[in-house]
Queue: 2 jobs
Job 1
Amino acid sequence: MTWKKDDRLLAKYEYGSPDVFPFTGNNDAPDHSQLNIEYFKRLDRVIEYLDHRGIAAHLMIYVWNKRVNWPEANSEADTRYFDYVVKRYQAFPNMV
């Protein structure tokens, strides 16, 4: 994100501007054959933080206007990603 952050923001709650990607590699050269587990651990922290504060999280599995280099629709990599996200986050009590 490019806007100014609050100077009082503690580093452990700084979730903006992540240099992480849901697949290994990066957005310019993704390896869609492998999911980046560190990315999902980071997302877990965000969802847990919201839950502890009584806030529901609406998880968008795909966001097409964020310049993410997604795998080809209906490919094996696409199915792997979709299934993993649904299975990983369906148990969070604050997930929509």
Job 2
Amino acid sequence: MELSLAIAAFLVGMTLLVKGADWLIESASLIAEGVGVPPLVVGLTIVAFGTSAPELAASLGAAWKAANNPALVGAGDLVVGAVVGSNIANVALIFGITAMLRPVQCPPAVVYKEMPLMLAAMGLGVLVMLDGRVSHSDGIILFLFIIAYVAHQYRASRAEPGVFELDVPALPQDETESRPKLGLGWWVRRVVLLLTGGVGLTVGAHLLVYGSTTIARAMHVPEAVIGLSMVAVGTSLPELATSARAAMRRESAIAVGNIIGSNVFNTLCVLGLTSALYPSHVPDGVLVRDVPAMMGVALLAVPFMRTNWSIGRIQGAVLFLLYVGYIVVLFVTSHA
């Protein structure tokens, strides 16, 4: 009976996370458009934060349970696992599927400016994991860097606005003319949608953590593996939906910005804020198996992007197959 309830809670929680993130993304994107923020900056910051919100909510929920209930101390292993697993999924799975649907443009501004920032953020995350835990002070340092990252993107968009204009589709004439006339009702609706998405994420995170930890115990699968696979893929669904939809609409700025920005937010904000509140334990095997996979696919994506300044269908298929191989290795080694 408990297992059935756990499966139901997991599915309902996943649905609420995805739907809540979708509302959050939609409202945040429209609000950003209303104030005239460039689309790549929207993808790197607002949309990336929105799509990373499920990881944040799930990680905070898991850490809170581990800190307040000794019987659920293993739930804390979900935190690092979910962050690392989500970063792997963003680059290998989501970039892969998105590129297979339609090649994703990656201009020099992305390859030479944004990818190094993403790699540096993930490298910092790895550095604080080396002693086997992410402490309060480590979390605070990571979180301060996400504040600096957002400030940098805002200043850069103002100083070099043309750099961020990758492939922005022209607005219809009537929409362009109506933008200055956005009234109070329009803003209220967007804010209400934003808050509703946040509530959905909070409730969904609670259900997801309960369901996943219960399933893990019943199947004798380590919570870290659940975080690296089920939770990581589930909470990455908003990134997949957003990037795939953006690519199909030929809005590569949003697609690539969302993936890169999400990895930055996962590492600096999700791991940082969660660990600042509740120190995170680094599960066995993460540093020798999952961290190399995370950094490896990210580094591989750079020469892929450099080829014709885009990730094409063949490169996308390679990334996707690498992710499938990683999941197979993950489950084989967890039962070894």
